[in-house]
Predict the 3D structure of the following.
Amino acid sequence: MLIKYIVVFFVSMVPFIELRGAVPIGLSNWLGDPLPIIPLYAICIIANMLPVPIIFFFARKVLIWGKDKKFIGKFFTWCYEKGEKGGKKLQDKAGRGLYFALFLFVGIPLPGTGAWTGTLAASFLDLDFKKSVIAVMAGVVSAGIIMGLISAGVFGTLGAFLGK
């Protein structure tokens, strides 16, 4: 069971997968029995939030530095443009409710809308760190709940269908 907790912890930290992928893994029979829901959520949220300060304060600087490098330039340029585009799109749509929009952006579990992208967008928009972290964390919690409900429905249905 410890291995499953470790897998869930590290999957929660992976960009684009994050908690959205870790919760279904934790609730599945993959690598053993499903994990208890409260410890699973706690681990997923903590692991998903660990990179947030680093992303907020350093990611933009690293991406700018790497944009003109030979082997990493294209990828860093793509990441930089994605963050810049996401930030502008969020700002245009949100207006004064920017932090609520950031919460919704992170909280609705769609590909590319997690804590990494949301924090990068907040960094590009020079938003307040504390307010951004609160909005992102609320979004991560919301996404975790949504993914838990979806996973329980999907796995419950598959179990009933397969007779388990």
User: Anything to note?
Assistant: Helices lie at 2-13, 18-27, 37-49, 52-66, 73-94, 98-107, 115-124, 129-162. The mean pLDDT is 88. The two ends are 21 Å apart (CA to CA). The chain has eight helices and no strands.
